[in-house]
Batch of 3 targets.
Target 1
Amino acid sequence: MKRVFCPKCDNQLSFDETKYPEGKIIAFVCPQCGSQFKVKLGRKTVRTKTGEEEEVKEPDFSCGYISVIENGFAFKQDLPLVMGDNVIGRRNKDTDGVDVPIITSDPSMGRKHCVINVKEDKQGRLIYTLRDFPSLTGTFLRSVILGKKEQARIEDGAVVTIGATTFILHVPEDRVE
């Protein structure tokens, strides 16, 4: 199943892309706002605001990633992390400053919920630190809530819960001790 978002209201729509040939243009009508838009299948470019086409880059998982595994509101997602602070929160069309947006309608997850900091030590190993943004519902590491201004070092396989959503940290295999 392929997912697209309405450009007007950001409503998520799903369809089976295997029923259509590559290059086919599919027209949609958003059931939420009634907006009409088209999507071209198999296209690896996007049109920028200046009207130029830009190639879509594949996600870079070299600094690790999180897998959203328990989310009754959406679907499994693998989201890449980058060096430095990675602000994690609920995806919203109008939210700026979220580096790792989780697609969900979970009202208990904040738009900016927690932060995973990625840095490299002197031996070239990646170090991951988790902290609450702060959020209203808190950030849980292995079912224990992080305190205000508390930072916790996390490693490969760390289970983190924000709102009603749980994710697991995955460290690149070549960066594990």
Target 2
Amino acid sequence: MNIMALDPGRDKCGLAVLNDQGEILWRQVIETKALEEFAIARAREHDPVCLIMGNGTTSKEAEGRLKKVLPGMTLKVVDEYRTTEEAKKLYWQVNPPKGWRRFLPVTMQVPPEPVDDLVAVILARREIDKGPV
């Protein structure tokens, strides 16, 4: 049973697909204007049972757009509280600092790329941790 998750944003979105164990099957930061295209492609490829979406920036607009292109999919809007901070920590777990940067605490470092896709991962994992989605 797979789950798609979205961190909606004005210019870019984080989109991820996880299995029901919380393992990442696919994740990417995408342009918001390409949201429908990527959501449809991931739905066809991974057949998710639902879409978990953060309640932040432009969530109402994204929800409307996705309901049009994925009419049969259950869509659940969830709280995004502190997900960006969690995503930054997760980024450094996935991409440990190298060279002299490994001596600096990761809390003092800024990831060199957007972490919106990892925010989507965190949103999905939060729902998985609550029990059956």
Target 3
Amino acid sequence: MVELAFSTNAYTRYDLPEAVRRIADHGYAGVELLGDDPHAYFPDFGDGDRDALLDALADTGLAVSNINANTAMGYYDDAPPSAFFEPSVIRADDAARQWRIDYTKRAIDLAETVGSPAVCLATGRPLPGTPPEKASDYLREALADILEYAEARDVEVGIEFEPELLVENTDEVLALIDDVGRDSLGVNVDVGHAAVYGEDVAESIRRSSGSITGIHVEDIVGGRRGKHYHRIPGEGDLDFRAIFDALDDVGYDGFATLELYTYPGEPDRAAREAYAELERYC
């Protein structure tokens, strides 16, 4: 049975323990932890931060659905307001790429500490001067290191595909998983990303059967080839009955995590209304 979780990346105006407690107030069974500033940017995330988080999780009884390590905005003093994936695991600069590998390992450490089954990782965009073929080589080299580390800690790594990234659709992520050939590598399916790319979301889920480490849920206006802007379910055009039926069909029994970082000024409303809209499907 699928349960609902909510990502703390909607609560960036609150510290991480307060975000966890607020999410619990809205009925969710799980919480996704933002592995980035201002919640768990790992170079600054110390023992006191970890202990305060563990206290909040114990107080609320929430399970952790995933560690979201897609971005590392805290790395830059002037990071843009939109999602930014640098330094990525496909960066040509060896030191920058290694920094991101080590950062992902810290996300895996947090997953082990809080009992999260997985972390998610975006590939990033090939930068000028790095052809996609070379970027793919960098990705596989980075994953070999990351997956060895994850497997020793019983944590899965889910690649989150997104339009315009190196891995941007279901075909590409499944080909990567098959090529790497390790059970610890899967896909974190973001339903909005599949829709914006032009895929049938339910079919993407069915094709990913057996490889799904987690699900990100949001609504999209326009659905197929719509604008990539995360909206509260019910405010867009996605067919959530079909999405949850597909999850049932493939036997997925993890969390569907609401990712509504687009509502930083009203995260409680977003959490409340999203839960009310989706609880009937669970």
